[in-house]
Amino acid sequence: MNNVASILILIFLAITFLQSGYDKLFYWKDNVDWLKGHFDKTQLKNLVPLALLHILVLELISGILCIVGCIELLINNGRLFGFYGAVFSCITLLMLLFGQRLAKDYDGARTIVIYFMPAVMAVYWLN
């Protein structure tokens, strides 16, 4: 097991994004309503449903790629899917960070940085 750290981070990212995607998918209206208030003073105020859909798709892609990456690492030490999962995770987190900064939610932005650090580590290790 040479890839334990990479597998653990990929599992962490998969849980993070699949749970978040599940929440967005099954509680769509609640999320849209809350986000409309969150972004009411930004340029995104009229684009909340479209932006949320975009984030949902990226989260699901990130989570699925991370799961497949774990399986690939376990089966044949392959790193391709895990690498792409980590890259998509970073892109997703950067988009979330942009939204939080745009909404001037600096505490929320700070929280995203906590998730970004292991995602970047995964990109580095799986590259």
TrEMBL record:
InterPro entries: DoxX. Keywords: Membrane, Transmembrane, Transmembrane helix. It is a multi-pass membrane protein. It is found in: Membrane. The chain crosses the membrane at residues 51-74, 81-102, 108-126. Its main location: membrane. This is DoxX family protein. The lineage of its organism: Bacteria, Pseudomonadati, Bacteroidota, Flavobacteriia, Flavobacteriales.
